[in-house]
Design a protein that fits this description.
The protein is α/β, with parallel strands linked by helices. It has 26 helices and eleven strands. The chain folds into four domains: 169 residues, 3-Layer(aba) Sandwich (Rossmann fold); 62 residues, Helicase, Ruva Protein, domain 3; 113 residues, Zinc Finger, Delta Prime, domain 3 (Up-down Bundle); 94 residues, DnaA, N-terminal domain (GMP Synthetase, Chain A, domain 3). Helix 9 packs across helix 10 and helix 10 packs across helix 11.
């Protein structure tokens, strides 16, 4: 006998065996027992959540010769014939390959004939959203006034594509994604029956990878058994799926946190050497970033899908990150994943996404002393507003400020890592009479534009004012093609250039 895939071997045969859809199973059983069955049902929801299985169970139940509390017996001749796909009155139609009007007209002509083997004739139309508009129109009349012996079950993953005229003639059941714990429990039952041992980490990794689809989880388990044999460990699952381990992903986040470009590129290089798929790397990083976000905003381990060994490290990283950055990280990596389809250099796209995040800055959250937090609500005193005496004495002279520019950069980094990155390639040209001039080379036009924004000018001015103890005006200059320095005009300067030196009101 040829080998049968595990998801077919362990397909549910009764409503009670359908995992995660109790709201649907209970309703259908009650409808069967009370004889309140509709003539048409619409089963919709994500793939692998039990739509087709429930449809076949319902088809067995309405034809079962020994019904038991709404459940098919699976022992009578009709149930056995349906299980063996050898029952003439249960017809399963794939709408993806039979989507035209001719196929539906043929169906419409045959529904009028009475069942030949069972009590009712059942039509299961899978992926019904694939039907053409003409086919839907041909189906409409039959759904509206079907013969009493006919039951239609429509299944789809995209109910929004089905015409409202069809929807209004069906009882709709929405199948939900199955939670990770239920998937893991069912997989544990399967491996026990198959005589295979599997570690908890490996089991949970498969369940998480399935993303709510039981069929996907069983298929991955089947693949892991073929690869690893009778003993499955986490590294087997990672090799089969091509995923990046949580430990490796955490190391990647550490490199970004520490702005360690060398370590970042080394890790990405190792992933490539291991044959990891770039799209999978991005997906794993996005999922890990989501876990960090959950730990940050909703620190409940029930919501977090990480292995026990990884949660401690993840909590440390979540504490060091701001919610805004985690959201930005998820968006940036998601955008990179979408862009992969248009790129013939996916590795560069992956590297650029992380470098972009590092340039923007992680802006780690520094723990504040209790006294500092309590003083936030108080009105600052004149003494508190004065800059620290030591840096004032150290940097009060213009020459010393230029010599100690590294100290200024450290202060700026504490306020905005992004601004710090843009200032890495500039040196102060002069500091005289309370005016600090920063001068960019011609090749740094973009850096000049970013630094010359109002918010960044304000940060630089604050830092230098605090360190020198005197008000400081900041000017940013850029070399032109002839080697001369040009000052970028502000909007006010542009207005004065156009209209003359007249009073200008800024709104």
């Amino acid at each position: 006998m040829s080998y049968r895939a595990l998801y077919r071997v362990f397909r549910p045969q009764t409503f009670s065996e359908v995992r995660g859809q109790n709201h649907i199973s209970t309703t259908l059983k009650n409808a069967i027992v009370t004889e309140r069955l509709a003539h048409a049902y619409l089963f919709c929801g994500p793939r692998g959540t039990g739509k087709t299985s429930s449809a076949k169970i319902l088809a067995k139940a309405v034809n079962c010769l020994d019904l038991q509390n709404g459940e098919p017996c699976n022992q009578c001749a009709n149930c056995k014939a349906i299980n063996e796909e050898n029952f003439l009155d249960v017809l399963e139609i794939d709408a993806a390959s039979n989507r035209g009007i001719d196929e539906i007209r043929d169906l419409r002509d045959k529904v009028r004939f009475a069942p030949s083997q069972g009590k009712r004739k059942v039509y299961i139309i899978d992926e019904v959203h694939m039907l053409t508009n003409e086919a839907f129109n041909a189906l409409l009349k039959t759904l509206e006034e079907p013969p009493a012996h006919v039951l239609f079950i429509l299944a789809t993953t995209e109910p929004q594509k089905i015409p409202l005229t069809i929807l209004s003639r069906c009882q709709r059941f929405d199948f939900r994604k199955i939670n990770t714990a239920e998937i893991a429990d069912h997989l544990a039952e399967i491996v026990k029956e198959e005589g295979v041992s599997i570690s908890d980490d490996a089991l949970n990794a498969i369940a998480r990878k399935a993303a709510g689809g039981m069929r996907d989880a069983i298929s991955v388990l089947d693949q892991c058994i073929a690869f690893a044999g009778s003993r499955i460990e986490l590294h087997h699952v990672e090799l089969v799926l091509g995923t990046v381990s949580e430990e490796a992903t955490a190391s990647l986040i550490d490199a970004v946190l520490q702005q360690d470009y060398s370590q970042l590129f080394l890790l990405l290089h190792d992933f490539m050497q291991q044959g990891k798929d770039i799209k999978q790397i991005l997906r794993d990083c996005i999922q890990y970033a989501r876990q960090l976000l959950l730990l940050k905003v909703a620190p409940n381990e029930k919501l977090v899908e990480l292995s026990p060994d990884s949660i401690g490290k993840a909590k440390e990283q979540a504490q060091a990150l701001q919610v805004e950055f985690l959201g930005r990280m998820i968006n940036r990596l998601t955008a990179a994943e979408k862009d992969l389809r248009y790129s013939n250099q996916p590795q560069i796209l992956l590297e650029a996404a992380f470098v972009d995040l590092m340039i923007q800055g992680m802006e780690p959250v520094a723990a504040e002393p209790a006294a500092a937090v309590s003083n936030k609500s108080r009105k600052p005193s004149a003494q508190a507003e004065k800059p620290d005496a030591k840096p004032v004495q150290k940097l009060i002279a213009s020459e010393e400020l230029l010599q100690q520019w590294a100290d200024v950069m450290m202060q700026i980094k504490g306020k905005s890592i992004k601004l710090h990155a843009f200032l890495n390639d500039v040196k102060p040209a002069s500091f005289q009479n309370g005016e600090l001039i920063l001068r960019f080379g011609q090749q740094y036009g973009f850096h000049h534009k970013m630094v010359n924004q109002e918010e960044n000018i304000r940060i630089i001015s604050q830092v230098v004012t605090q360190l020198t103890g005197q008000p400081v005006k900041v000017s940013v200059e850029l070399e032109n093609e002839d080697g001369y320095i040009k000052q970028e005009l502000t909007l006010v300067d542009e207005a004065k250039k156009l209209f003359g030196d007249i009073p200008i009101e800024i709104i």
